Amino acid sequence: MSVKAMRPRLSQEDIIRLMKGSSVEDRAHATHKLCRRISVEDLTHEEKVFADQILALLAKDAEVLVRRAMAVTLKNSPNLPRNVALKLAHDVEAVALPVLQSSPVFTGSDLVELVLNATDAKQIAIAGRDALSSDVTTAMSEHACRDAVKVMAANDGAEMTERGYDAVLKRFKADQDVHGALISRQWIPPQIAEKMVSLVSGELFDKLVNEHELPPQLAIELASGARERATLDLVEQAGRSTNMERFVQQLNLNGRLTSSMIMRGLCLGHMRFVEWAIAELAGIPHSKAWLMLHDAGSLGLRTIFERAGLPNGMFMPFKTAISVYHELEFNGLEGDRQRFRTCMIERILTQFQAIPQSDLDYLLEKLDAYRDVRDRDESGKSEEEAA
């Protein structure tokens, strides 16, 4: 039913109850009923003008319960007028928080202004929005309360700039909870990870260096124990690098770009790392290395393998791993990469046993780790199903 179609009923029944209901609860119920219809309707211009007039009146209602009913019902709706949303945002927290956290009608400028003039609770609500632009997060980083910054830092939908990261680290240099929120993000810039290495310790340090991309030289130093003792896996670090060319160059300069590391990367599905590593060692462009690895057949593979200076005894497991990689495909499901790696390692270990002992131990350790994660996931799902 459109707003236009129900207008006579609204005029005679709902609007009377909205403005002169026998009780606050009665008016709040009528408000919810009207707003629910408005929230789901595809309004014409005439209908929207009519609805906007009613909502503007509701936003002025003296009772918090009525205004909150409107805010809660229309918090996700694009049909909430921006001027009404802003009025609700400046209302008491019971009314403001739903729209601040969810309403899609605010502009970035609106949110920046609100952050600069809002209470702590309102800032926290804004920090938890599904998406925040860099202008908003920078304002929050520099001016918001500690708890709001913590929520924003853990929000992967909040787009942060280097300026924003720097402001957070400067303001909360010793706050491990805020640091933990930043580290919990799916990705942080390598230069920020580098700055945080000296700020965190214990579990946070381990999580930072093992789950986030580090600048290549820092990663190599940490893996070598030159700066701090860390269980850093350079293969995994290489796999998450956004500048693979520079990473493999640094590995090579430090004498760490070994055949063993390349083989481990291949078995874990880090093909991009393998391609750049082979190109670096062979002294050829990445595009040519890609062709010789994937499209040039066994002769091309043998040629680039030898040109890269890899040991002859490693060729058969290397060739086997390339073949298995081509046979396997990601299926796009949850946990896909973990399943791919598990399958890849199992196939390599099954098809070729003459792998150096250190590499064999490494791959078996990885395989056990993936199986432990799989078992925990399956156990968790079983408990949910039982519940």
Q: What is the number of independent domains?
A: 3
Low-confidence stretches: 1-12
Encode the helix/strand succession as letters: HHHHHHHHHHHHHHHHHHHHHHHH
Tell me about the biggest sheet? none
The gross shape turns out to be: elongated
Structural class category: mainly alpha
Helix content: 55-70%
InterPro entries: DUF2336, UCP035865
Pfam family, one: DUF2336
Organism: Ponticaulis profundi
Protein name: DUF2336 domain-containing protein
Core attributes:
387 residues; mainly alpha; 3 domains; 0% strand; disordered N terminus; DUF2336; DUF2336 domain-containing protein; UCP035865
Structure description:
- The chain contains 24 helices and no strands.
- It has 387 residues and is mostly helical.
- It folds into three domains: 1-100; 107-199; 258-382, no CATH class.
- 38% of the residues are buried.
- InterPro entries: DUF2336 (IPR019285), UCP035865 (IPR014598).
- It comes from Ponticaulis profundi.
- This is DUF2336 domain-containing protein.
- It holds the Pfam family DUF2336.
Question: What's the short version?
Answer:
By secondary structure, the protein is mainly alpha-helical. Helices cover 70% and strands 0% of the residues.
Strand-helix topology:
Layout: H1 7-20, H2 24-40, H3 45-58, H4 64-73, H5 82-89, H6 93-102, H7 108-117, H8 120-127, H9 134-143, H10 146-153, H11 162-171, H12 176-183, H13 190-197, H14 202-211, H15 216-223, H16 234-239, H17 244-253, H18 259-267, H19 271-282, H20 286-294, H21 297-307, H22 315-327, H23 336-351, H24 357-386
